[in-house]
Automatic annotation (TrEMBL):
Domain of life of the source: Bacteria
Pfam name, any one: Asparaginase_2
Matches recorded under Gene3D superfamilies: (Glycosyl)asparaginase
The protein, known as: N(4)-(Beta-N-acetylglucosaminyl)-L-asparaginase
CDD domains per record: Glycosylasparaginase
InterPro entries in the cross-refs: Ntn_hydrolases_N, Peptidase_T2
Length: 291
């Protein structure tokens, strides 16, 4: 069984483009990279790659990660500007022995050294959106960085049984320069083990990094829970705990694919995810909040 799953309706583009590669026998790593690159390139997805959402000073800073579920190699970048495809840089970093997680200027220099295409990622449309928000903040005195965001995450299982996961995002709109979310952080934003499965997250990074739910879910699957039971337990137990102990909970949405090709989602907001498997053509699902 092979298959892939991705977050939000934007993942449909990546799943439609990359699922034929799975059918042709290509690796899960290639499939994750191709799916996410297509989404990063598309200018009208406003929270990923080209055309992504600017930070508080009108600059576009992106976070991304890639993980190989066979050997646990991870590559990640955070707070990077003007790299055409953060996911390709993350994947290349995952092939290094050291220096696997790079930030800002250092990540940009690495990308250049490795021959990745530099590209101005801020678009006129994103600048307009930022100016409108600035005007709104001036009018209302309220800055709500949380409004407007979304991360693309893709988990894939190939015909050889290998799994990979990738994430890419411009993070929260109007975030403080230098702010990093959960998306490049292993365990919190993503995790994959080819013998168990892969999990990835989207929502309010500040809350999702309070517990490594992606890793925890895989431990529950290993302990015998189904992928849906494991994800439900890990996500909703923590959402409840956070409500109880902290009094506030941001958006939490997670996708999972296990090593047998079964998939699941758990969310506390309306959410969409795209799937394609050996048995199922690319399909977009709507998920309702359970907590
Ligand atoms: C972040 N988790 O930077 C990302 C944003 C996101 O749905 O996924 N929003 O906190």
């Amino acid at each position: 069984m092979y298959g892939m799953i991705g977050t939000w309706s934007m993942a449909t583009l990546g799943v439609e483009k990359a699922s034929p590669l799975l059918a042709q026998g290509q690796s899960s790593g290639d499939v994750v990279e191709e799916a996410i690159s297509a989404i990063e390139d598309y200018p009208y997805f406003k929270s990923v790659g080209y055309g992504g959402l600017p930070n508080a000073i009108g600059e576009l800073e992106m976070d991304s990660a890639f993980m190989n579920g066979d050997d646990f190699q991870i590559g990640a970048i955070a707070g990077v500007k003007d790299i055409a495809n953060p996911i390709r840089v993350s994947r290349r970093l995952s092939q290094e022995r050291v220096n696997n997680f790079l930030v800002a200027q250092g990540a940009q220099e690495y990308a250049k050294e490795q021959g990745f295409e530099p590209k101005t990622m801020l678009t006129a449309r994103a600048i307009r959106r930022w100016e409108e928000r600035q005007a709104e903040v001036a009018r209302t005195g309220r800055l709500t960085p949380y409004d407007g965001h979304d991360t693309v995450c893709v988990v894939a299982l190939d015909q050889q049984g290998s799994m990979a996961v990738g994430t890419s995002t411009s993070g929260l709109f109007m975030k403080h320069p230098g702010r990093v979310g959960d998306s490049p952080q292993a365990g919190n934003g993503f995790y994959v083990d080819s013998e168990i499965g892969g999990v990835a997250a989207t929502g309010l990074g500040e809350d999702m990094m309070k517990r490594p739910i992606c890793f925890e879910t895989l431990q529950l699957i290993r302990a015998g829970y189904s992928v849906q039971e494991a994800l439900d337990r890990a996500v909703y137990n923590f959402v409840d705990l956070l409500k109880e102990r902290n009094g506030q909970v941001g958006e939490f949405s997670y996708i999972a694919l296990d090593h047998t090709g079964h998939y699941a989602c758990a969310t506390n907001v309306d959410f969409q995810f795209a799937v394609a498997t050996e048995l199922e053509k690319p399909q977009l699902y709507l998920a309702q909040p359970q907590a």
